[in-house]
Amino acid sequence: MNLDCRVGITLLAMTEIESRMTQTRIVIVGGGFGGFSVARRLVRSSVSNRIAVTIVDPSSASVYTPWLYEVASGGILDDSLRGDLVRATDIMLDRFSGIRFRRCAMQSIDPVMRNVVCADGSAIPYDICVLAVGSVSHDFGIPGAKQFATDLKRTSDALMIRTELSNIMQDTSAKQRRIVIAGAGANGTEFAAECASTIRALEKRGALSARSVEVMLIDSGNEPLKMLSPFLRKKTQARLRDLGVVLRMNTALANVAEHSVGLKRIVKGVPAEKIETVSCEYCVTALGVKMPEIVASLPFERHPKGRILVDDALRTLEYRDIFVLGDAAYVKEGKYPDPQTAQVAVEQSIVVARNIVAMVTKRPVLPYRQRASWDILIALGGKYAVGRALGVPIWGYTAYILRRFVDARYFFSVLPWRSAFIRVVKGVAVYGKNETP
Ligand SMILES: Cc1cc2nc3c(=O)[nH]c(=O)nc-3n(C[C@H](O)[C@H](O)[C@H](O)COP(=O)(O)OP(=O)(O)OC[C@H]3O[C@@H](n4cnc5c(N)ncnc54)[C@H](O)[C@@H]3O)c2cc1C
Description:
Layout: H1 3-22, E1 24-29, H2 33-43, E2 51-56, E3 61-63, H3 68-73, H4 82-89, E4 90-92, E5 99-102, E6 106-110, E7 115-118, E8 123-125, E9 128-131, E10 136-137, H5 145-148, E11 149-151, H6 155-170, E12 177-182, H7 186-204, E13 213-218, H8 230-242, E14 245-248, E15 251-257, E16 260-267, E17 270-271, E18 276-279, E19 282-285, E20 289-290, H9 293-296, E21 308-310, E22 322-324, E23 329-331, H10 342-360, E24 376-379, E25 385-389, E26 392-395, H11 396-414, H12 417-432
Parallel strand pairs: 1-2, 1-9, 2-5, 9-22, 11-19, 12-13, 12-19, 13-14, 21-23
Antiparallel strand pairs: 3-4, 6-7, 7-8, 10-20, 15-16, 16-17, 16-18, 24-25, 25-26
Helix pairs in contact: 2-10, 4-12, 11-12
Bound molecules: flavin-adenine dinucleotide (FAD).
């Protein structure tokens, strides 16, 4: 190698080191909907060469939770589909150029020294920190729930549920089998409908004896999907009835045991003393979410329900270099409590990414504008969904197609075009195997 060439390479290396030293360090804690979306927007932004983006997460995948119900009930009798099911939902965080990934859990934040401290004791220095740690499932301390029921939050939960369902379906004894799903909000209702739809599809193919597995959906309220209009709630009930889902409304889950659940009837808002024991092969809980314990130990003001209070630019009230978004954030001066949904996390990620670019370029940050109402689309087994799009009620096959379009839109917004396309096609193909019209 001649001298000129060596000098050239040395200069290049020095420029690289210098640019790294002057780069703004953005550390994103949590690589789920909000965190991953901020990271992807930043590395494609106008300041991409002036920033160093690191995601810190104990999980190596950003999970597309809206498809978890499909993983939990997909290809039940065909284990060769397992890999494809997971590949469609899990976006591996270490595959993106421009984003550094540290696989560890944040233990604390030192906002004075500007460090994110990990469970392994290491400290990651930041100039701007983004907290997007999401939420965890709430079991309300129901006896036996932790031990004998499964909640649907991560891909590993979905796979565990799928294995259990597969065992139940392959049990050839003649006895009536039952799956209890507690919580008739969006997640519980979607899963109950898909589970029943899978069972009906297997029965049609002669793989199961007719109606031999019952799906029971219970809730302390008087109807599933209370967030929908009366008209759409009626549609939902009709669809669930068609799929053979047994609805037990005004009923609270009192306890869970190995092969049974205890149920309490609720009369005029008050749970009865008496507990009815109902036998079941498996119980899945979808009772709601709460904040991860780590959030309570962080030095930020919190809403009474645990979410971190943020200003209208989505920064903590105490530190202007720490943003919070998604399930963990609560806008202090907001008109409404934002729902804890992926839609909100993604919408907020646009604002956070834009504000980080503004900070790097020394421009003023802009406010996040809340919405009074959000579109919602809930899959109800097979090629059927219900919901609201642009405020208009929508149901049936049209709603199902729109829901698939929303899935695709997310992947195209965060992934390179080719990999988004492959994921959408593969997802629709592998999940489509479950579906009967
Ligand atoms: C089964 C299911 C179905 C859903 N379906 C829909 C739907 O159809 N539409 C919709 O809008 N919403 C849906 N949601 C809600 C949606 O998933 C959440 O609202 C959304 O994921 C919140 O985004 P987030 O970025 O705040 O958190 P998440 O996406 O949950 O990401 C949080 C990340 O933080 C990481 N993390 C946690 N603790 C730490 C720590 N200490 N250190 C580092 N990292 C940490 C986690 O590993 C995770 O990767 C669904 C949720 C579930 C469970």
